[in-house]
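Please produce the structure of this protein holding zinc ion.
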Amino acid sequence: MAKKKEKKKNKLDPELEMRERAMVEGILEGSPDGVGVVVIRLDCGCRKMAAVTKDGEPASKVIMYRDHAESVCDKCKDDQGAFIRVVTQFIHWQDPAPDPGQQKKISLKVLGTTETTTH
Ligand SMILES: [Zn+2]
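Below is the modeled complex.
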């Protein structure tokens, strides 16, 4: 009899990553001024995304979503994805990406850091 072995991976599911990428592309398409999309992953599994301009200003509405769900979780409905629950945040740059100096400027303005993750 075969043993059931279930390993939980810490890495992001490739399928989820693909969905995330598709969302990013969609946001960029709808944001002509956007040079990149801020992607914020929350500890509950929901995401927050918004396009930014080359000046680090918002280029789109903030979009919140949850994979395989019609709406975000109750926690997020409550706190709108509070900063304290952010697991990862980074900017997905449009192709061609702004030069590194500009990227730094934008992430500093938008994320408050030039680091790509908080934890
Ligand atoms: Zn949530």
